Amino acid sequence: MQKYIDKYIIFLRKSFKHAWISLPLIIASLATSVYLYWHIPSTFLPQWDEGNIVVDLVMPTEITREESQSEFEQIGEIISSLKEVEGWTMRIGTGLGGLNKPINQGDFLVTLSPHHKRTTFEVIDELRAKIEDKIPNNILFPSISKQKVSPSHAMA
C-alpha cells in the first residue's frame, strides 16, 4: 500500500509544479461534457418492441362505475378491431402500479399477434387516434410493456 501512496505523492508534486495546465484541462473537460450532453441520445437502449402494450386510462373523476365500465368496454372494442391484436385484458380500479386506484382509472394489457406487420409504435399511434376520436374525455397513456403478457381475452 505504501508504494501506491508514494506514487500518489510523486504525482501530486509534479501536478503542483505544472499547475498552469490544470485550467486548460478543466475547460477541455467541461467543453467535452457539454458537447457529449447535446450529442449523445438520452438512452443507449434501442426502442423496445416485443408486441405488448399497456394502455393506462384516466376518465373524469365524476364518472360512475357503470359509465366507467361502459367506456372501458368501448375501448376494448376499439382494441379488438385492430388486426394486429391477438388479445387483451382490462382492469378497472387497479393496475400494474398498485391495487387501490379509483374507478375512473384502469388499464388494458394488449398482446399483439406474433407476426404483426406494423411496429408496436405504429399500432399505438392508431390506437391512440381511434380512442381519442371515439371517447374524447379521457387521458390515454399507451406504452410498450417491458414484460411478456399473456392475453386472457381471446379474440372472437
What would you say this structure looks like, in words?
By secondary structure, this protein is an alpha+beta fold. It folds into two domains: 2-39; 52-144, 2-Layer Sandwich (Alpha-Beta Plaits), CATH 3.30.70. 42% of the residues lie in helices and 19% in strands. A four-stranded antiparallel beta sheet has the order 2-3-1-4, with helices on one face. The longest helix is centred in the N-terminal third of the chain and has 18 residues, at 22-39. It is elongated, with a radius of gyration of 27 Å. The N and C termini lie far apart (72 Å).
Short recap of the structure:
The protein has helices at residues 2-17, 22-39, 65-81, 120-134; strands at 52-58, 85-92, 105-112, 139-144.
Proportion of residues in helical segments:
40-55%
Q: How many strand segments?
A: 4
What percent strand? 15-25%
CATH architecture of the largest domain: 2-Layer Sandwich
Summed up, the domain count is 2
Question: What key phrases describe this protein's structure?
Answer:
156 residues, alpha+beta, Alpha-Beta Plaits, 2 domains, disordered C terminus
How would the blueprint of this fold be written?
Elements: H1 2-17, H2 22-39, E1 52-58, H3 65-81, E2 85-92, E3 105-112, H4 120-134, E4 139-144
Antiparallel strand pairs: 1-3, 1-4, 2-3
